[in-house]
């Protein structure tokens, strides 16, 4: 049997399709501490756009466990959970600092706010709205969270105004 490392760590949970929020709620109802990073996503239906919260990592969430103390096998039997990501016989921990860094970027509603680390000149990607997934250069951010971006469209740069929560760093 594998060695159980002492202390609480974050572990990755693979969920059933579109059941991330259900799984997070059910884990919390069982007394586990979970973290589901979210983002704003534009959904297009019948020529209408709607902006909704969606998982940042579709089909994945994180749960804090002390393998020596917690009944971690109960996680696999939780509604909405497919299985924990394993390393042999034990759950595989998430890289140290990853969940803490994501949590530091999250607002109270769980939505990641990358704009906290963005500055003029950075390459950014719009995550929502009619220009979703387009990349541009951040020009300015004001105190109300409005941003000006120069989008790279059809070989040119077009200035666009948007809201800071709708941005993510571009690779």
Can you describe this structure?
The protein is mainly β. It has two domains: 9-105, 2-Layer Sandwich (Alpha-Beta Plaits), CATH 3.30.70.940; 114-169, SH3 type barrels, CATH 2.30.30.30. It has helices at residues 20-29, 98-105; strands spanning 9-15, 33-35, 38-45, 48-55, 60-65, 81-84, 86-87, 90-91, 123-126, 135-141, 146-153, 156-163, 167-169. A hairpin with an 8-residue loop joins strand 9 and strand 10 (135-141).
Can you give keywords for this protein?
171 residues, mainly beta, Alpha-Beta Plaits, SH3 type barrels, 2 domains, 5-stranded antiparallel β-sheet, 4-stranded antiparallel β-sheet, 2 helices, 13 strands, 41% strand, elongated
Order of helix and strand elements from N to C terminus: EHEEEEEEEHEEEEE
* Strand residue percentage: 35-45%
Helix share of residues?
10-25%
Strand order of the largest sheet: 12-11-10-9-13
Shape: elongated
Unreliable segments of 5+ consecutive residues = none
Q: Could you give a short account of the major beta sheet? A: 5 strands, antiparallel
**How many strands appear in the DSSP assignment?**
13
CATH architecture of the largest domain: 2-Layer Sandwich
| Class computed from helices, strands and strand pairing | mainly beta
Summary of the model, kept short:
With 171 residues, the chain is mainly beta. 11% of the residues lie in helices and 41% in strands.
Secondary-structure blueprint:
Blueprint: E1 9-15, H1 20-29, E2 33-35, E3 38-45, E4 48-55, E5 60-65, E6 81-84, E7 86-87, E8 90-91, H2 98-105, E9 123-126, E10 135-141, E11 146-153, E12 156-163, E13 167-169
Antiparallel strand pairs: 1-5, 1-6, 2-5, 3-4, 7-8, 9-10, 9-13, 10-11, 11-12
